[in-house]
From TrEMBL:
Listed transmembrane segments: 25-43, 49-68, 89-112
Keywords from the UniProt entry: Membrane, Transmembrane, Transmembrane helix
Name under which the protein is recorded: DUF202 domain-containing protein
Compartments reported by the entry: Endomembrane system
Length: 113
């Protein structure tokens, strides 16, 4: 009989709960921002140095997600244990701000070039 090891349930006791799904979603957002920053570097020869501002914003947003991921997961897991989970509205607002800033800067760079 083959035994498989179950994932660590974490401090809340259930490996399939919201903190894991939320962590995966933030990880996908971070990877999308890293991918977009690589695409911005490909635009550098055509649009010039203003594209570096787009690169900097996308890399900074990805780094912020990476650096706050552990804290966000811990807060969600503790919230489930206490049966009171607070939404991380500041992270969502900063990510939305970064998306709007990237869009505005992108339009500006394309129109200027």
């Amino acid at each position: 009989m083959v035994r498989t090891r179950l994932p660590d349930p974490g401090p809340h006791g259930d490996p399939g709960l919201q903190p894991e799904r939320t962590t995966l979603a933030w990880g996908r957002t971070m990877m999308a921002l890293v991918t977009v920053s690589a695409i911005f570097l490909r635009w550098l020869p055509h649009h010039g140095f203003p594209i570096l501002l787009l690169f900097a914003v996308s890399v900074a947003a990805a780094a912020a997600i990476y650096l706050t991921q552990r804290r966000r997961y811990g807060a969600s897991a503790r919230g489930i244990s206490r049966e009171k989970v607070d939404a991380d509205t500041s992270a969502v607002l900063w990510t939305a701000f970064a998306g709007v800033a990237l869009g505005a800067l992108g339009i500006g760079v394309v129109l200027a070039g």
